[in-house]
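User: What would this chain look like folded?
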Amino acid sequence: MCRHISFLADSERVMHYVMAAFHHALVRIVGYSSFMRASRRAYVASALLASWTGTYLDLYFVGKGLYAFPKRPFPSVFSIDIFFTAVVLPLGTVFFLALMERLSRLGRMGLIAALSALAAALEAKAETYGLFTHTAEWSHWYSVAGYGLFLSIIWEFYRRFQTVD
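Assistant: Here's the prediction, encoded as structure tokens.
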């Protein structure tokens, strides 16, 4: 037993040295500056904000009975689609922010409008597959407006986080 623990400690030490060597090589090749580290932290913080916000909004709307996720991972544990809020939203947020950085102000407004409309269209498509159901009171225009506001808040948070960091 003690020998096994010693092996794990040695392998962790080796892994630490490999990761440190990789980091130093990356610094030399890419010129990894403090700006890039700040940008990375802003991406992570924004992705976490998007995930948490999406999770709580889904929990709120499912709790109010406005919509439901009939086919979802771990249905006995979660009343929402936890895969979407824990994986899809954070990854989508990082891609969204990377695109937003490259666009002009008008392009950013257009991207937010297009993604909001796309999200509403994907919700309607998800209904046909039985992944999402909503009540008669629900309108997909709520999704268009909601995703527009959501994406605008995430973008503003990302921009402000970069200036604070």
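The helical segments are 2-31, 34-63, 82-101, 105-128, 140-164. If you want, I can go into more detail on any region.
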